[in-house]
């Protein structure tokens, strides 16, 4: 325990926040999730293997709808994901009650990133041990974002999170041109999961 530092705002020797590093390590241990943005939509998929035959698979959900046009998938800690989904749904409902329209994807991402960033600097809490892929469709077309435990949010054409994400990203980079021109990116996702 000599190397462990539990303070939220203590930087290590290389200038990184230690608690964020722990959260990112937890994400890298999580089951893989992949997203691909195509011309006519976004596809997200995840590894949903359960650890025991006794687990009720119908109750184990890694993909959640936030609005009718936006969904999340995660890698990392499921309990942290449930908290984020709940908060994102509340923010989206508040937006709908105020403006009488579905919250745009980039605003769902921004609100989620703000929540995750606040947990990196607030006392009595720890950073979320989860990264999310946010897929959605709004007036600007299909969108794919990644939100990390630090609260950083990035737009992607295709990406992966979780265990072996580096290999999956390399696979997607080599094949993205084909995916972008293919009307059915589901085939690429299936080939990627079968490849593993």
Give an overview in words.
The protein has one domain (18-49, 61-195): Aminohydrolase, N-terminal nucleophile (Ntn) domain (Glutamine Phosphoribosylpyrophosphate, subunit 1, domain 1). The chain contains five helices and eight strands; from the N terminus they run αββββααββββαα. The chain has helices at 18-29, 78-99, 105-118, 165-181, 186-195; strands at 33-38, 41-46, 63-67, 70-76, 130-138, 141-147, 153-155, 158-161. The strands form two sheets. The protein has a five-stranded antiparallel beta sheet. Strands 2-1-8 form a three-stranded antiparallel beta sheet, covered by helices on one side. A hairpin with a 5-residue loop joins strand 6 (141-147) and strand 7. The longest helix has 22 residues, at 78-99. It is globular and about 50 Å long.
């Amino acid at each position: 325990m000599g190397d462990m530092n539990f303070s939220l705002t203590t930087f290590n020797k290389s200038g990184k926040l230690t608690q964020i590093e722990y959260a990112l390590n937890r994400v890298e241990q999580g089951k893989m999730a992949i997203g691909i943005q195509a011309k006519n939509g976004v596809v997200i998929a995840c590894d949903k293997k359960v650890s025991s035959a006794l687990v009720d698979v119908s109750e184990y959900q890694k993909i959640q709808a936030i609005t009718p046009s936006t969904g999340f998938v995660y890698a990392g800690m499921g309990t942290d994901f449930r908290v984020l989904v709940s908060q994102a749904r509340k923010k989206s409902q508040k937006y709908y009650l105020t403006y009488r329209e579905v919250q745009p994807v980039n605003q769902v991402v921004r609100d989620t990133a703000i929540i995750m960033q606040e947990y990196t600097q607030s006392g009595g809490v720890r950073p979320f041990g989860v990264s999310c892929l946010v897929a959605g469709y709004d007036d600007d077309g299909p969108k794919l974002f990644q939100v990390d435990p630090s609260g950083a949010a990035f737009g992607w054409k295709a990406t992966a999170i979780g265990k072996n994400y580096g290999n999956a990203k390399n696979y997607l980079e080599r094949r993205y041109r084909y995916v972008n021109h293919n009307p059915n990116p589901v085939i690429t996702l299936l080939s990627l999961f079968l490849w593993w």
